[in-house]
Amino acid sequence: MNNTLLHSNGMQIEFASSSLPNSLQAAAITGLENKCKTLPSALFYDATGARLFEEICKLPEYYPTRTESTILRDYAPLLASHIGTDAVLIDYGSGSGEKAQFLLDYLPSLNAYVPVDVSREQLMQVAAERSAQYPLLQVLPICADYTEPLEFPNLPDGARYIAFFPGSTIGNFHPSDAVTFLTQIRSTIMPEGKLILGVDRRKHPDLLHAAYNDKLGLTAAFNLNILRHLNREMNASFNLSHFRHLAFFNEQTSRIEMHLESLVAHQATINDKLIQFDAGETIRTECSYKYDEESLSTLAEASGFEIEELYTDSRQWFWIALLSPSSSSNQYCQETTSF
Ligand code: AVI
């Protein structure tokens, strides 16, 4: 059965049955119709993409996951002392729940652990595992897209909320969207809560280049898989051999950009729409912003936070930032945010 969605330009868009939400399908088509073609990074994560990403995290060149884990392991006792007693830990995009595990071991008096993830199966598995591991802990899983405003049923009154957003996924948000998301977190944890945020630091472009152009070609496979996903879920006809993976550090915007470059002039269809490609034309599939102290402070301030602590690793490649809502009222304007 086909579904329809009203596009912002007033046109009706038809969607074939698909496990992809209509909004994501609409964003894919709008992005491909742009002069500079883009696709939403959320499309990376079908089952194959999720598996490839897990493998990328183990690659020698891909330092963020390992580095963040080192910081979490080293500073967990200190982070636990900031979290204090009787807190509720909200794990945004809990995934396999591995990262929160570093903290949970040091939080015997946590009031509740709230993993939030769209993948119901993985969420329920994490919830079951944590309940078994910590029989006195309330585990309250929420199956949702964490970028949407969340409803938190059954949370204890008067508890302090600690938001946990590791993985440097904040880097995959455009800075203005990062402000919107962090502002939303701030209103959830107000007035006494804290945010523990994983942030990838700006570093030498060669290191960044290697991390997104690994020798085994897993990042290239991860990038190209987005087209396979669209072929399956949106009745698209992309020929993967007409594209190549392209990733580079854009110094001006301080972000890694991943693109798929069309090697030849050709056409493809998606949900019966014809998309033309010139030779050398690209689809931008992901941005991964790398922060320095100034841009991180700007982001924190624009979202109504102040930086309490910055924990880093011996090579200074990554931060676990501890943020608290700033005391002044939120009078920040997103348009003034520049990075
Ligand atoms: C999920 N995210 C933090 C990863 C990153 O590094 O931006 C996604 C990724 N893309 C390519 N490799 C990993």
- Secondary structure class reads alpha/beta
- For the record, the count of structural domains works out to 2
- CATH topology (level 3) name of the largest domain: Rossmann fold
How widely separated are the two ends? Answer: 45 Å
Rg, nearest Å:
21 Å
- Enumerate the spans where pLDDT stays under 50 for 5 or more consecutive residues: 4-11, 330-339
- Total strands: 16
What is bound: which ligands? N,N-dimethyl-L-histidine
Q: How would a crystallographer describe the biggest sheet?
A: 8 strands, mixed
What coarse outline follows from CA principal-axis ratios? globular
Order of helices and strands: EEHEHHEHEHEEEHEHHEEEEEHEE
CATH superfamily grouping of the largest domain:
Vaccinia Virus protein VP39
- Which percent range describes the beta-strand content? 25-35%
Tell me what the structure shows.
With 339 residues, the chain is an alpha/beta fold. It has two domains: 22-56 and 204-289, no CATH class; 63-203 and 291-325, Rossmann fold (3-Layer(aba) Sandwich). Helix content is 33%, strand content 26%. It has helices at 22-33, 47-56, 64-83, 98-104, 120-133, 175-189, 205-211, 218-233, 293-302; strands at 3-6, 12-15, 37-38, 87-92, 112-117, 138-139, 142-143, 160-165, 194-200, 243-250, 255-262, 266-270, 273-277, 282-289, 305-312, 318-325. Strands 4, 5, 6, 7, 8, 9, 15 and 16 form an eight-stranded mixed β-sheet that branches. Strands 3-14-11-10 form a four-stranded mixed β-sheet. Strands 1-2 form a two-stranded antiparallel ribbon. Helix 6 (175-189) links the parallel strand 8 (160-165) and strand 9. Helix 2 (47-56) runs antiparallel to helix 8 (218-233). The radius of gyration is 21 Å and the shape is globular. The termini are far apart. The structure holds N,N-dimethyl-L-histidine.
